[in-house]
């Protein structure tokens, strides 16, 4: 896989820089949604994408990537935009972008956009007709206030656990009662389930895994504990669960 480095040189508009910072601060909510989307039998997302800036010499282009994966530190995805001037990256390329280089994230449910912080900053400077044309080009409905999860725009500390997290708690408990070793096993990429749920911010499942013997000192392939991953992503309740 080829690595294309994202450039954190801010856009000319300070509002875009603020929007990008907000996107990085709330990235965990994007990943939580994608994490649960992967486990659905019937998909619920129309779109899930991350934006970063790609650089070749003096040329900088801001591109979106889809088919996103995330290991708690690095975003991996497939480029979907056709660059205007860049020659080293093309649509369909798989690229890696560090979390602190992410410029924006976006997912859509039933045509309603969540995230899109830089998009909101751009739309704020458009007139009514220009906004309509912009939104038609995307094929999505963009609210005037950025949504984080399930139609909610709020202080992340006040947002609820993901509905699928709560719905799966009983099934996971039943599975662990049959085989407690699942709480300690690592997946094919070297992560324990405790790592995965901590990265996704699923505090109720973290509590459950710890109760069944998951090792809070286990380190991910990049050398971090579940708690350290949660701290980096701002999952306060997961960190608290580690010390309950």
UniProtKB/TrEMBL annotation:
It comes from Nocardioides marinquilinus. Residues 13-142 form the DUF2314 domain. Signal peptide: none annotated. It comes from the Bacteria. ANK repeats lie at residues 189-221. Keywords: ANK repeat. The keyword Cell cycle does not apply. The lineage of its organism: Bacteria, Bacillati, Actinomycetota, Actinomycetes, Propionibacteriales. The keyword Chloroplast does not apply. This is DUF2314 domain-containing protein. InterPro entries: Ankyrin_rpt (IPR002110), Ankyrin_rpt-contain_sf (IPR036770), DUF2314 (IPR018756).
């Amino acid at each position: 896989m080829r690595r294309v480095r994202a450039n954190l040189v801010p856009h000319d508009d300070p509002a875009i820089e603020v929007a990008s910072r907000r996107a990085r601060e709330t990235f965990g909510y994007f990943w939580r949604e994608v994490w649960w989307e992967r486990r659905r039998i019937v998909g619920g997302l129309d779109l899930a994408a991350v934006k970063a800036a790609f650089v070749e010499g003096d040329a900088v282009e801001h591109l979106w990537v889809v088919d996103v994966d995330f290991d708690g530190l690095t975003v991996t995805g497939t480029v979907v935009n056709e660059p205007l001037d860049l020659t080293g990256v093309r649509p369909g390329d798989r690229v890696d972008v560090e979390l602190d280089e992410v410029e924006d994230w976006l997912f859509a449910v039933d045509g309603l956009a969540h995230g899109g912080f830089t998009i909101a900053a751009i739309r704020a400077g458009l007139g009514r007709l220009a906004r309509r044309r912009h939104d038609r080009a995307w094929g999505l409905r963009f609210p005037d206030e950025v949504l984080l999860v399930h139609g909610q725009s709020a202080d992340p500390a006040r947002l609820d656990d993901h509905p699928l997290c709560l719905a799966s708690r009983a099934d996971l408990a039943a599975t662990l009662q049959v085989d407690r070793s699942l709480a300690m096993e690592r997946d094919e990429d070297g992560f324990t389930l405790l790592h995965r749920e901590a990265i996704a911010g699923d505090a109720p499942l973290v509590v459950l895994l710890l109760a069944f013997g998951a090792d809070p000192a286990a380190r991910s392939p990049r050398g971090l504990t579940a708690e350290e991953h949660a701290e980096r992503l701002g999952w306060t309740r997961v960190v608290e669960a580690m010390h309950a």
